[in-house]
Amino acid sequence: MSSKPSRPRGPRRPRRARRQKRTAERESGEREFSAGGVLVRGEEVAVIVPTRRAADGSRVLALPKGHMDPGETAIEAAGREVREETGLAGEPLCELGESRYWYRRDGRTIGKTVSFYLFRYLDGDIADHDDEVEEVRWITLEQAEQELSHEAERKMVTLALAYLRKDR
Q1: What pTM value is reported for the model?
Q2: What is the dotted CATH code of the domain comprising 16-165?
Q3: What percent of the chain is predicted at pLDDT more than 90?
Q4: Burial (Cβ within 10 Å: 0-12, 13-18, ≥19) of residue 47
Q5: What are phi and psi of 18, to 5 degrees?
C-alpha cells in the first residue's frame, strides 16, 4: 500500500497570504502613496531611526520617506522628505523603484506604495533633522544592505549600489 507523500505546508502559506492581501485590498480599497530617498555620499548612505517603533517595540533603521503633499510630484516629495528627516540636501540621480506592502490601521488594511529615488549628497547637517527622527547617521551601503529593518528598503540600497557601480 503506497501513500502519497504529503506536500510541505510552507509553500501554501505565501499563496494564502497573497490571496488574503488581495481580498483585503478589495474590501478596504484604501491605498497610500509615499516617496523616499537613498541619499549617498561616496560609499555611504544616510539612514534614520524614526521615533515611531516597530510593532514589537524595537527601534527601526530606515530610509527617509513620507507622504506626498498636494500638488507635489513623487521626486519632489522624496527630496523634501530627505531634507526634513535627515537635515541633508541631495541632487536627484534616478528613480530606483517602488516598494509595496500592507499594514493595519484602526482595524483596516491599507495598501502602501513607496517610490524611491537615488540622491547624491550636496550639503546639510544631520543634527538638523526633524522631530519625527530620533537619530540620523551615515553607514556604508553594504551595511545598509544588511542592517535596514525592512527588506524592501534593503533592496533599494542594492539597486543604488548597482547604479553607482555601473560606470566603474
Answers
A1: 0.80
A2: 3.90.79.10
A3: 70
A4: buried
A5: -65, -40
